[in-house]
Amino acid sequence: AVEDVASVSPNASYLSPGLTNESASLVRLEVDMTLDRNIRNHESRKLSDGLEGCEKDRGLEKLLLPRVGLLEALHGLQEEEGVKVFTALYSLALGMSVSETKRG
To answer: What distance in Å separates the CA atoms of residue 12 and residue 25, rounded to the nearest whole number?
Structure first.
């Protein structure tokens, strides 16, 4: 379903520097959502919970949110449902919102 790997971060980034050596690399993928197989795959993943093993045990929940307007969607979840948002996701959404406002 993935058409192209657009980019991979050259180095791992630390998620909790000074606390753990936990790190992650970022991968950006290009997916052609005009293809039927990708639309079907996306629709089927919306319905599945997608969590396995310890993820289910830790009370995690999979949510599909819009890319455009992500920050507002996160704010809504925080205010309406008391959801705790992972700081890295919030930082990404904040940066994306700056780009959205500059485009008009």
So the answer is: 5
* pTM value surpassing 0.85: no
Nearest one of 45, 49, 43 to 61, comparing CA atoms: 49
Please check the confidence at residue 88 and state whether its pLDDT lies above 80: yes
Q: 29 phi and psi, to 5 degrees?
A: -115, 145
Return the bridge partners of 4, or none: 30
Whole-angstrom CA distances from 36 to 1, 33, 41 are: 10, 8, 8
- Cα first-last separation, the chain: 31
